[in-house]
Every structure is written in structure tokens, then in C-alpha cells.
Design brief:
- The complex is a heterodimer.
- Chain A contains 14 helices and two strands, in the order H-H-E-E-H-H-H-H-H-H-H-H-H-H-H-H.
- Chain A is an all-alpha fold.
- The radius of gyration of chain A is 26 Å and the shape is globular.
- The two termini of chain A are 49 Å apart.
- By secondary structure, chain B is mainly α.
- Helices cover 74% and strands 0% of the residues of chain B.
- Chain B has 15 helices and no strands.
- The model of chain B has no long low-confidence stretch (mean pLDDT 87).
- Classes of the chains: A mainly alpha, B mainly alpha.
- Chains A and B meet through helix 2, helix 4, helix 5, helix 6 and helix 7 of A and helix 1, helix 4, helix 5, helix 6 and helix 7 of B.
Chain lengths: 300, 288
């Protein structure tokens, strides 16, 4: 305030406050504060906390990478990592293949195609927790899923209570939610391909399978790359179905990373190691998202 | 001549066969995706005691009811679930209003001005959406507990208002507004705030609707955060209240399905109403 009166020194400060930078900063301030405090700070807090350990007596000591070392030696965490990897390796190719095939189907000529397509997109509107609750009723021993199995002569299945079926049951539920969403990006990509390419291929006598492999697939590479990355990230963050349907069980078979963090923090009260796990999860997702930016940039 | 006629007719019929095949496949897939929701919808229209009545064997009553009743929806009105859904609505609407203000001003600051350090500020925005919110929800909940924001609406709303993706979307749109227009307005004596409210905002309705939808769905679909932040009866949100019923000894499935349908129909109505903008906002989520 006093500085602005003294001309020689105040000129610069005054220009910052009234010049474009100052005004722009005022407009940006609320968003910057909220992004820094609500997104970046918690990540930083997790990182710092992950290097410390609080004992029952209330003392806090620096342990370096000790929490990480113990985490990786912990059989429960090892199991959680294994389950998450298995889940990632299975669900992502499955969902992307399904989304691609459905996108191809729904861009072909068929009666009422748009109408049937909207049925596939519909689950997007369902909040994940609501889908989980609906499917928990479907998967009950006397529920709808077993009703359908009975029609084709298969005995009732335990779905969520069998350690061999629970993860698969969760993947089916997640695909019901997600496939339509990813399909929309691929439909947009397919619609961008000029029809003349297909006409030329038909004249050359290429079968429709051949056209699918030689024209459609390579030309939707860009949306496909985006879907691959975005789908992988969202599957790393799966939480509601696990928490609502299986609580990580039976026998740890659905204990995905997000749920493991949650139980470590709130059931076991082991905040520092939970924070170390948050850091691992954030690192994984940041690497994947950064990869996406790379992929999409270099193709321009 | 006859040769080409035969060939074209055979081509036609092959096309017809393909058309029929595609249609059958499309119907099968469409129905398969619809069935879980449709079954929930029908169950919301009949007493909870009948939920599991028509499943073994499957019959027409499984998917239809001759005596629909709105009783479950009426029961919702004075139940805890109804209250929770109203809380969800309140949190989402406030988030859209405040969030649009915060995100639009930020996008304006990033697009209407040219200054040094702009790139750095923009990368803070980008960086903030590299980190998915759910991943940092637990450390953030820890911070909020220290600030006494647990079980408050402010605690529930706050994380939704600064949305890097919405800022990004609005900025892209704002950059397309011609500079001459802004210069002319400035010469006419309009201040920066005037330029923002009189020129940028009215010209950007589609982008604002798209960003608003994004903010709305973020809150409406949230689960991890409300589970950590809103645990008492007055601040519990719809999805959390619904999931609390799961696993309880006595559940009225009719009411459970009615609540599920309301939680689905509200965003669905909004998405359908603004379909054009929804697809636009989805496709800018990373594609173009």
C-alpha cells in the first residue's frame, strides 16, 4: 500500500496488481486454491506421512522407506497387489474388446440401431454404488442371475461367496457399467472413418472381417489408445462394488488396492502404511495418465 | 445383362441377411444391458415381499407386473432414504452453482489474458487432474477431520467445486472467442468483469452446460468421499444410505429398488435433457 505511493519502487508492484497478470490471478485464485488444497496437498501429505510412523504412545518418528518395505513384505498387501494385477490384466482387454465389437455392431445397418444402442449406454447414468446394490440382489442365491442359469439348466452358483467366482462377478458388474461408456468413444472414432475407404476395399473384394482388421481397427487407434488408458485408470480405482458386495473376500480374492487402503486406514488404523499405499496408487495412475498424454500427443 | 441382375440380386439378399443378423444381435445386446435396470424398475413397482417370487422358474411376471403400485415411492417420502436423496440433490446443485463460478472464472483467467507464468498456472490445473480424486480421498479426509469439516455439507461440497477437467473444457471454449470482440468491448469502457459476464458467459452456454453436467455427475455418483465424510443421519447421501441397507437383516426390497430408481432417474433425466452437451463434454474428456 505504501509502496504504491513511492513511484520508483511501487511502479512494478502496481503493474502486477492492476496489469493483466494481477487481474488474471484474481480470477484464477479460487480455483487454484481449491485445486492445490484439495488435490495436490493431500497427495503431498500422503507422501510425507508415508515416511513417518506414529506409535501408540503418540510419538512420531522418521522411518524413511520403512513403511514401504514392510508393506511389500506383508502377505495381505502382496495378495492385494496380486489380485489387482490379475484383475487389471483380465478386465481391461475384456472391456475394450467388448466395447470395440459393440461399437462395430452399432455402427452397422440394423433396424432401431440407435434405440438398442441407448440401452447399452443407459448404465452410465447409474451411480456405481447403486449398481453394486442392484447387482447384490441379482447375485443372491435366489436372485435373478441364478434364475437365468436355471433356464439353461445350470445349477445355482454361489457368485459372491465363492473365492473363484467373486472377482469374475465383480468384473461382470463393472463391465455392465463401463462398456457402454467406452463404446461411445469408439463409435465416434468409427464414424470419423470416410466411407470411401470401405467402398474401395469392397471393390477389391475384401471380406468384412478383413475390412475390420485392415481399416476399422488401425483407424480408431487414437480413441482406442485413450480408452485403454482411461479404462485402466478407472479400474485401478474400483471401490464401491468391493466394499458393498464382498468386503474384499472371500479369502481376500477381491481385495483390490483401493479397498485394501481403506481397510488399512480405517479398520486397522494403520494410517502411515495406508498413506504409503496411497502414494503407490497415485504413482501408478499418474504414470498411466502421463502415458496417455504422450500417446495422444505424438500421434498429432 | 442377366448376369449383372442376378449378381446384384444376390448382393441384395446377402445385404438383407446381414441387416437381419445385425438387428437381431443389436436387440439381444440391448436387452441384455437393459434387463438389470428393467428388473429393478419392475421390482420398485411391487411389494418388497414379491421381489424373489417369480425367479424360479423365470416367467412373464419376472419382468412385468399386472398390478403396479407406487407405494414404495410413497414410503420413500418419509424414510431416511428419501432424506438422503434430498441431501444428494442439495449437495449436487450447490456444487454445480459454486463450481461453475469457480471453474469459469479460472478458465477466463487462463484464456482472456496473456501474461508470464500462465503456462505454470495451467500446468497446476493439468497436474490436478492427473491425480484422480478417489486416490487421494483418504489423506484428504484426514485433513478435513482436523479442520472439523466431517459431517458438514461444506465438507461434502468442497472437493467438487474445483474441477480441473471442467476448467480445461471451458478454457478450450473460451480460447475460440475472438480477441477483436474483447478489444472492442474494452474500448467501449467495459471492465474485465464486464467482459467476462457480458461477453464470455453468454457466448459459452453449451460449454457451461457441459461443465455443469460434469460437476453434477461427479457429486451425484460419488461414493468414497461421502462414505468418509457424511456418516450421520443428517448428512448421509443417497448412495451411502442405499448401500447401508445392504446386508441388514430386514430389508424392504421394494423401497430399496424405488430409491435406486430415483437415484438413476434424476441423472438420466438431466443427461437426456442435455444430451447434446453431454456427448460434447464426454468427447472432450481426452479425445480432441
Amino acid at each position: 500500500m505504501t509502496a504504491s505511493r513511492g513511484r520508483p519502487r511501487g511502479g512494478g508492484a502496481r503493474r502486477v496488481l492492476t496489469g493483466p497478470a494481477g487481474i488474471a490471478l484474481l480470477f484464477l485464485l479460487p480455483a487454484l486454491v481449491s485445486l492445490v488444497v484439495l488435490r495436490l496437498a493431500p497427495a503431498a501429505v500422503a507422501l510425507v506421512d508415508s515416511f513417518f510412523r506414529t506409535t501408540l504412545l503418540g510419538g512420531t518418528s522418521f522411518v524413511g522407506l520403512g513403511n514401504y518395505a514392510e508393506l511389500f513384505g506383508n502377505p495381505d498387501f502382496q495378495n492385494s497387489i496380486a489380485v489387482t494385477l490379475l484383475f487389471t490384466v483380465l478386465i481391461n482387454p475384456l472391456q475394450i474388446a467388448a466395447a470395440f465389437l459393440l461399437a462395430v455392431l452399432f455402427t452397422r445397418r440394423a433396424a432401431g440401431s440407435r434405440f438398442w444402442r441407448s440401452m447399452v449406454i443407459l448404465p452410465i447414468a447409474v451411480p456405481p454404488a447403486v449398481s453394486a446394490v442392484i447387482w447384490s440382489v441379482i447375485y443372491r442365491p435366489d436372485g435373478l442371475a441364478n434364475g437365468f442359469l436355471a433356464v439353461i439348466g445350470i445349477p445355482p452358483q454361489p457368485f459372491l461367496t465363492s473365492q473363484y467366482q467373486a472377482l469374475l462377478s465383480i468384473m461382470i458388474l463393472l463391465s455392465w457399467i463401463g462398456v457402454g461408456y467406452w463404446m461411445m468413444f469408439l463409435i465416434a472414432g468409427i464414424n470419423d472413418i470416410p466411407a470411401s475407404y470401405y467402398e474401395a476395399a469392397s471393390l477389391d473384394g475384401a471380406s468384412s472381417w478383413r475390412q475390420l482388421w485392415a481399416i476399422t481397427l488401425p483407424l480408431v487407434r487414437r480413441p482406442l489408445a485413450f480408452v485403454l488408458v482411461a479404462d485402466t485408470v478407472s479400474n485401478f480405482l474400483v471401490f464401491a462394488p468391493v466394499q458393498i458386495l464382498t468386503k474384499g473376500g472371500p479369502n481376500g480374492s477381491t481385495n483390490l488396492l483401493m479397498y485394501d487402503i481403506y481397510t488399512r486406514a480405517f479398520t486397522f488404523g494403520d494410517i502411515n502404511r495406508a498413506q504409503a499405499e496411497v502414494v503407490i496408487l497415485v504413482l501408478i495412475t499418474v504414470v498411466i495418465v502421463a502415458l496417455q498424454f504422450r500417446l495422444l500427443k505424438t500421434e498429432d | 445383362m442377366t448376369d449383372t441382375v442376378v449378381r446384384s440380386r444376390r448382393g441384395m439378399s446377402r445385404r438383407t441377411v446381414l441387416f437381419v443378423w445385425n438387428t437381431l444381435l443389436a436387440i439381444t445386446v440391448g436387452l441384455a444391458f437393459l434387463i438389470p435396470l428393467w428388473w429393478s424398475f419392475i421390482n420398485s413397482l411391487r411389494p418388497g415381499a414379491e421381489t424373489f417370487s417369480y425367479l424360479n422358474p423365470l416367467q412373464w411376471q419376472t419382468f412385468f407386473t399386472a398390478t403396479p403400485t407406487l407405494e414404495n415411492y410413497l414410503a420413500l417420502l418419509d424414510s431416511d432414504l428419501g432424506r438422503a436423496i434430498l441431501n444428494s440433490l442439495f449437495v449436487s446443485v450447490v456444487t454445480v452453482i459454486v463450481g461453475l463460478g469457480v471453474c469459469a472464472t479460472a478458465a477466463y483467467g487462463l484464456s482472456a489474458f496473456k501474461f508470464r507464468g500462465q503456462g505454470v498456472l495451467f500446468s497446476v490445473v493439468i497436474l490436478s487432474f492427473l491425480i484422480p480424486f478417489d486416490a487421494i480421498a483418504i489423506p484428504l479426509a484426514d485433513m478435513f477431520r482436523d479442520w472439523n469439516l466431517q459431517n458438514t455439507f461444506i465438507g461434502l461440497i468442497l472437493p467438487g467445486i474445483g474441477n480441473g477437467m471442467a476448467i480445461f473444457l471451458l478454457r478450450t471454449f473460451f480460447l475460440a472467442i475472438p480477441e477483436e470482440l474483447v478489444e472492442a468491448a474494452r474500448l467501449d469502457g467495459l471492465g474485465w468483469w464486464g467482459v467476462f459476464t457480458r461477453i464470455y458467459l453468454p457466448l459459452s452456454r453449451p460449454a457451461l452446460i457441459g461443465a455443469g453436467l460434469m460437476l453434477f455427475l461427479f457429486q451425484w455418483q460419488a461414493y468414497v468421499w461421502p462414505l468418509l465424510m457424511g456418516t450421520d443421519d443428517e448428512h448421509i447421501l443417497g448412495p451411502v444410505a442405499l448401500s447401508n441397507l445392504q446386508g441388514q437383516f430386514q430389508v424392504d426390497y421394494g423401497v430399496l429398488f424405488a430409491a435406486s430408481m430415483v437415484l438413476v432417474l434424476i441423472p438420466l433425466a438431466i443427461i437426456l435433457g442435455f444430451q447434446r452437451y453431454f456427448i460434447q463434454s464426454v468427447s472432450t474428456t481426452g479425445l480432441k
